[in-house]
Amino acid sequence: MALFGETKKPFTYDIAKEGEETILLIDLEQYPHTPSIEDDPVCMSRTIDILSEAGTVTKIVFAQKEITNTTTARHQ
């Protein structure tokens, strides 16, 4: 899964195996909020929907780019 190579709808997901781990990778690059199961009811609801489709996983990873403004730091 190319998380940051192409534009995808929020909550597109893939499952990766790393040793004993089964990792659910949820792409939230286009999601306008910081992903949080605790603080965002939409994120919680969609994550539970995905878990019901995906089955057993040992880890959940939300992938989202962070946009920072470095202009000020570069010019000081």
What does this structure look like?
The chain is α+β, with helices and mostly antiparallel strands and 76 residues long. The protein has a domain at 27-66. The protein contains two helices and three strands, in the order ββαβα. It has a three-stranded mixed beta sheet, covered by helices on one side. α1 links the parallel β2 and β3. The model has no long low-confidence stretch (mean pLDDT 84).
Question: Summarize this, please?
Answer:
This protein is of the alpha+beta class and 76 residues long. It contains 2 helices and 3 strands.
- Stretches where pLDDT is under 50 for at least 5 consecutive residues are none
Global morphology: globular
**Count of distinct strands:** 3
Number of helices: 2
| Gap between N and C termini | 39 Å
Trace the largest sheet across and list its strands: 1-2-3
| Helix share, percent | 10-25%
Instruction: State the order of secondary-structure elements, H for helix, E for strand.
Output: EEHEH
Mean pLDDT: 84
Oligomerization state:
single chain
Structural class: alpha+beta
